[in-house]
Amino acid sequence: MMSRLAGLDRAGLRRAAAMVVALAAGACTGDLGRPRQDIFSQVIAPQAGFWSATFRGEAASHFRFTDDEEQLRDRAWRFIMPSHERSVFQARISDLAHARVLPAQMQPGSVSDYFSALTAGSYASQASRYARLAEDANADRLLIGPFRANAMRVVSADRVRMRTAEGSPQVAPSQIEPAFARVVENEGLILWVCERVGFRIESYRYALANLVVQMPSREAIRAERAIMALEAEAGPLCKMSLIGAFGGGAQTPADGGSPQPPAVYKG
After folding, report:
1. Residues ≥6 apart with Cβ < 8 Å to 35
2. Which range, 77-91, 142-156, 176-190, 235-249, is most confident?
């Protein structure tokens, strides 16, 4: 894999990454701020992401994505982005991390950011803030189930992929490394989404507590129930059985708790 970098120097890669960041800053946006399908999102960002991830020493596969793998990445985008549309800068950085142009560690964010965005500007009634909080938590809850079902299909296919790659004499040895890299990418993405869902829940709880302190309302009950429902839906996602390719930390701990979140996203 690293031999593919032989003709590239560090300065060249840095210049390429800087160009991608500049292009992304001016990219048109579609629904929820996500870049529309254009030459940047379809060609430039994926290629730049592959080379950036490889340069950082992360697992990177040149295999084409399956339909389920494409869909998994589309569904993951919602949870990786900031939970409030006012976080424009954070959204841009998160989008570049999703494309792998930037490492996940550069993704900014504090649990207080959602509350700050939620209460920014003028508003007629505190009820609208509680309603928005409940709506955001409910929207996340409704999307976790489809993501988990998608993830289970991908993991199941990856198990078949690796059994075939390691056990069939018809598979060339050169195909095994990128096959394993794709499994690592897929598991890394699932774990990253689990991590980000947990971050959203913390952000919602922070926002609810501070809303109650600043402007108590009976609407807090509805928001609390929405957050509890989101937590209940997130549990099965974060405890689903994975192959364990991602750093050896993908399996559920023996005490039944959630897997350790990845330090670096690799897919």
Report:
1. 24, 27, 28, 29, 41, 45, 95
2. 142-156
Residue 9's pLDDT is 46
pLDDT at 231 (0 to 100)? 96
- Distance linking the first and last C-alpha atoms of the chain: 15
Cα gap 41→27, rounded to integer Å: 9
Long-range contacts of 179-183 (CB under 8 A, 24+ apart): 179/61, 179/63, 180/59, 180/245, 181/1, 181/59, 181/60, 181/61, 182/61, 182/63, 182/69, 182/158, 182/267, 183/158, 183/243, 183/245
Evaluate if residue 139 carries a pLDDT over 90.
yes
Query: In the prediction, which pLDDT does 121 show?
Result: 75
Q: Which residue has the higher pLDDT, 34 or 171?
A: 171
The pTM assigned to this predicted structure is: 0.74
Q: Quick one: which of 237, 245, 105 has its CA closest to 182?
A: 245
Other beta carbons within 10 angstroms of residue 184's beta carbon come to 22
Lowest average pLDDT, out of 26-40, 69-83, 182-196, goes to 26-40
